[in-house]
Structures are given as structure tokens and as C-alpha cells.
Amino acid sequence: MELRQLRYFLAVARERNFSRAAENLHIAQPPLSRQIQQLEDELGVLLIDRSSRPLDLTEAGRFFYEQSGQIMARIEHMREQTRKIGLSKRERYVIGCVGSTLYGGIPDLVRRMHMRWPDLDIEIREMMSTEQVTALKERRIDLGFGRVRFNDREVERLTLREERLVVAFPKGHPKSLSADPIALSELEGEPLIIYPSAPRPSFADEILNMLSEQGISPGSVEEVREIQTALGIVAAGMSLCVIPAASQRQRPDDVCYRTIKDENATSPIIMSFRRDDAKGRIEEIKQLIREMYADNPPWLQLSNVQLDGA
Amino acid sequence: MELRQLRYFLAVARERNFSRAAENLHIAQPPLSRQIQQLEDELGVLLIDRSSRPLDLTEAGRFFYEQSGQIMARIEHMREQTRKIGLSKRERYVIGCVGSTLYGGIPDLVRRMHMRWPDLDIEIREMMSTEQVTALKERRIDLGFGRVRFNDREVERLTLREERLVVAFPKGHPKSLSADPIALSELEGEPLIIYPSAPRPSFADEILNMLSEQGISPGSVEEVREIQTALGIVAAGMSLCVIPAASQRQRPDDVCYRTIKDENATSPIIMSFRRDDAKGRIEEIKQLIREMYADNPPWLQLSNVQLDGA
DNA sequence: CCATCATTATACCTTTCAGGTATCAAACCC
DNA sequence: GGGTTTGATACCTGAAAGGTATAATGATGG
Fold first, then answer.
1. Strand D contacted by A52 CB (< 7 A)
2. Domain identity same for B287 and B144
3. Bridge partners of residue B94, in order along the sequence
4. A225 touches chain B (CB under 8 A)
5. Is A230 found in the same domain as A183?
6. What are the tens digits of pLDDT across the range B165-203?
7. In chain B, how many domains are there?
């Protein structure tokens, strides 16, 4: 598959007419027909229903049209951004973080960093904990915030805090009627949703480990790619889910949350960075985080701060 | 730009070595070098720093690597999905909706539709109100939920309810101290964030119209692409923002919301569909929505239901 | 239902450009 | 600093994109 084929298909899909599309593309009609045929051959699926005029897209063609349009827009955006970054003299500082930290202190930290270094272009990139290690080593990010512990010679990690875990129940679930902390053992036999399903090891494994260490076996375990989906399934009444405390800001109307009683049922927030970091902002960033924690923001509740030991 | 060049660049960026990358790609090294050069020429930006071995990516190259990897993954996903849809015999039903309706009844409606038609593959696609009209006409979606009124011969629209609007304040803003409804006139002179910036006309214009009709002029107006960004800027204390009531479920910790007193300060939820819809499920869907509204879910508060007139 | 028009598919030729080979020029490594 | 690794350059070959002519097919109107 080549971008040319996507461009051609988009033109045909928009015009619903090969000849006119070919004109717009400044090529003759037969090569256009052939490229579309090749695309369909490769996919093994018909995209255009040619049995009637004006042409109609097949079901698969409609989907492909939608997607390829978005992809072309995204590529155009990448092209412009790359050009801009290449020509810009401003320094870039890229932060990789797992989604749940965006519900915690990251937005506030970025604000403080903006104030501290106005000439820095700060960028946030969502990224699983495990990806952060390689991204750091390959200098694709300068700082990472994750939830899974790992060891790597080149990467230093610092546990900022241990966040308590909560159980998400569908509204109306018998065990959701109390607002009190819940014992981990009450998950015995309950259907459980975990996330993310890839890449491993992830938060999903931390939860499974925690349960098996305590000898608790859920009734069923299903994996989904992201927390939104997980909470959607919880809201639909199909299952329960264990999430970090800060993430319970989501869906307050159709999902109920109960903190887990066991104080060791926690998930860490780990900051990681290159040992040989040349940009030399790490110490000041630690200081900004200390100041932020001192302000005791609401998302800090239910956490055991550890940064002071740093 | 062609996908081949993205594939080649990814291989070089991963290996940090042209010769080895060429081996992996089963081509010789010189053509690989040339393709990368062409890519760099087209972008007008150097992606790879060749002045030292092992090779290093430039700042722009790092960005391009990140992006093109994601794009390739997305294309792969599109290819598989297209194939699957093309071979599947199941019927697809695509719903286009603006983001804020996902905080309302759409998830519940989809659940009910799943139960009613187990053999239907229902798909949700985020889409601005204006895009929905063309998407309906081109049969890319079967049902739309939007916030902007429009007229089109082929498309029928039905106002489900009028949702009250609320103002978002940064925590600690003097006007956020009261929880009572706020008069629209109090926005006079305040800096305002509106969204989405494209495509027009959008919710942003509805807000601007409403204000100018009442003779209210905000201190400054800035446009952003999406509500997340808008609320982030509000949380950072830079501005205020007017949003539909159902969207106030977001960021409850660092943003305060006050309902607007004026009962006409509302935003409609509009369902739209093709007049000639062949799938013939519209009447049953209306019935499902009526049942859903009868259950009086929490997101229905602060809304004036209008569906009964349908 | 057939004739005509519009439009797409097929056959075949031309041209462009991706890929290969040979070789040169740096950069790294003792 | 001389050998080795590796990327760039020059030039050639061949696959594939694009063009032209024409046949096949669906739409349209009497």
C-alpha cells in the first residue's frame, strides 16, 4: 500500500467518478482505475461498487474513506510540525506519561515549568510505562511518568508517591451501596476488567500480581486496551475494575468507587530520566514537584508521598 | 511523500545504521540513502544527524519517528478493519456524534441498541455537527447527534432536548465562590475561551451569538480546538469558558461550574438521519430514547426534554 | 427493447524512478 | 596513522507508473 493509492482513492470517493477524479489528479483515467484495482486486490476487498452510476462505496469502502481521510490529515500535520521543529531554534522538552497521570499533577507541573522556562517548548506524549524506558534511551523523551517499576542501567527512577487503589462498581451494584473502604478479599469471585492489554508488563499485571499474592481469584478476567473502555464496561454493569485513586474523577455519574482498605494496595507514580541527562533541569523539576506537593492539591489525597527522600 | 519513505525512515531510525536497515528491508544501501535524502529534501529539514556514528536523530527526526510510527500502526489497523468489514456479513450501523454527547446518553443508547439488535455492529465516530450532514448524505454514518441546527433537504432533524449551559471557572476565582446560578451579564469583560475552532459554524459560534444578542462583550476571546484544552486553560486560571451542562463532569477538582440563570441559555441535542433511511430502525431508536429518558438518568438534569413532540 | 451516450476496463506502449553495482569519502578504532 | 566500517555518489537496469487507443458495460431516452 502506498500513499498515492490513498490519495487516488480519496479523489474517486469524493467525485464518485473515475474520469473526473483523474482530471483533478492530473493523470489519465486508466492508470487511476488500475491503482484502485491494485489497492482492492491487496486488501482482498471491493471498495467501490461499480455496478451502478453514479458509483457507490461499499461498506468497507466507506470505512476506508473515513480512515484514510483522517490519516492523510494526520500526515499533513506531521509534515508541518516536523518542518517547524526543524527550523525552530527553541529548545524542546518532551514528557512521556501514562494516561492516569494526566488526572494527577502533570498539567500543574507543566504550568510551573512553563513559568520557570518560558523559552522551552514543552510537549506531552501519552506513553505506557515500559515504552518510556526505550524512549528515554533513544532521547525521544526527556522525562517519564509511569506506574511500573523497571531497572535499566541508563535510566534513573524516582518514586514520587504511592497512590491508593480504588474499585469501580456499576451504579447500583450491591457492594457499591457503602462508601467505606472495601477489603481486597471481596473481589473473590467477581468478574474483573483489567487494562492496558499491551504492552506488557503493565498496570494490568500489577493488579493480577497483587490479587494472586493475596490468594484471591476473580470470577473472570477480561483485558481491554484502555481505561475508558474498562469503565464503559463497568458502567454497563458487566464487570468490576481496579484503578488508581486519581482516575476516579472519570464518569462520576454512572460508576461508583470504593477505596481498597489494604494500605499496601497501591500503585506508584514513578518519574524517570536519563542518568546522563544533558539538559540539566532534573533537579529544578524535582524542586517544582516538591512545591506542588506542598500545596497539597486534591489529587494528592489517598497517596503516600515519597519524594522527600530524594 | 510516500509510505515507502516512512517505512524506510523507521527502519533507519530503529537501527541507527543505514546498511543494517537496508538489509532488514531487503534492498541495497544506496537506494535507501537516496529515499531518506528525498524525504529530507521534501520536508526541507534534516532528520538524521550523520556527523557521528552511531547515527543520531535530529530533534525534528525524533518527532517524525514518533509520529510516523503511530501513523504506520494506524494504517495497519485500517487495513485489517477494512478487510474484516469487507468479508463480514453482519450489518454495520455507524453513529456520528459530537464529543459532548458521549458524556450524555449515547453510551447508554448504544447499550440498548446492542440489546435490541444483537447482530448489528454498532460503531461510534466522533464528528462535528456540520460534518454530520455530509456524512449522512454520503451514507458514511446512519445517525447523527449534534449541537448545531442546520437545514438540508435530504436530512431530517429532531431536537431531543435543550441542555442548560454552565460557566467554567478556575478554582478560587472570585465569581466561583457562589454555587448559585450566574447571570449571563456577569461575563461582561471576562476573558473567554471558546471551542471548537473548526469547522464552522460550531458550538463556538452559538456562544458568541448568544452573547452578542444580549449585548455582552467578553474581555477577550480565544479559540481552541477542543474542550479538553479549553478546560485546561480554565484550570490554569487564564480564562472562563461556557460549556453544556453534561460536560461539567470533567475535571471536577480544578474547575468550578455555575449554571447560567437565563433559561434560554441552552444548547440543543439534535438527532439527525436520512429521510430515505433504508435500514428502518429510526422509529425504534426514538422509542429506545424515550425509554431512556423515562428512566431519568443523572445527565438529563438541567435539560428541557422535547422528544415527546416527535 | 434497442440505439446512443457516458464511463470504466483492457491492451499495449512510453517514461519515470526505484533498486542494483562499483567506487569514493568520511568516521571510528585500535 | 592505517585498517575497517559505513554512508554518499555515479551510473546502469528493470519494474511499475502513466499515456493512448479501444473495447465493454451501465444509463438514458425514444
1. yes
2. yes
3. B123
4. no
5. yes
6. 999 998 888 888 888 899 999 999 888 888 876 665 677
7. 3
